[in-house]
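Before the break, one more example. Copy the sequence into your notebook; we will annotate it together after we see the structure.
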Amino acid sequence: MTEEKNAKTEEQKSIDEELKKSNSSELTHAKSHGEILKQQIIEGQETYDKNPLSILLSSFTAGLEIGFSYLLICTLFFFLNGKIEEDTIIKLLSFVYPVGFIMVILGQSILFTEHTSLLTLPVLNKKRTLGSLLRLWGLVILGNLVGGCAIAFLLVWIGPRLDIFDLQTVKKIAVHVTNYDKSVIILSAILAGWLMGLLSWLIAASKSTLSRIVLIFMITAVLSFTGLHHSIVGNVEVFAGLISSPAITISGYLVFIGLSLFGNALGGAFFVALLKYRAFVYDVK
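Here is what the structure looks like once it is written out:
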């Protein structure tokens, strides 16, 4: 037992030493796997060290800001409705869907799906505990959901009064998002979480604001075009439907949120954080 513990300690020392060697590349060179991993672990630890109230406020802000994607989704849907086929409108929404994500990520508010893998890496690197990860996830999710619900209330009220969309549009979008079997939603959410975790990794690899905007647009447009379930945007879409139409029930809303959050967390933590980290560890051995 002692030998096994010593072996694990030595392995961790080797990993940490290898990460320390991962110095910043020249501007003309792409970052290495180790450099990106080191940056992600450092950024993740910095988030753990923040004041809980700061984290809650930042995640609440992200929940609000992601609502601008929903505002544009509803507005474009309403504008095109009756002019072209509805299934074509759904695909065209992918051009406006990324706007809220660009605001949130470049503005450095804390979005659960973008931070899932980022916050998991310090745990894999044995710098933080699983309990601290779950507490932090809970805080971020709470802020994101409350912020999303708040902006949903505002947009459902202001949209019809500005005549940019109506409650029928809100209902159609909510039903479109939730009208799937539970197994489909959870697998779709896993893929969405995987993509969002990969987005966090790619942003760490990029060195300019323009390249980051392109990456955010590319990944989130894929989410929208393919209809993958993102828990935080989905929260705004489905909660707006809940408060404006009997088509969405409280139980339906809660089931959707639970499945999509679980799927997003699993996708980001396993398919990005764990696989990227283990790939580095096996290279060190």
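The first helix runs from residue 2 to 21. The CA atoms of residues 62 and 126 lie 28 Å apart. Try to locate both features in your own notes.
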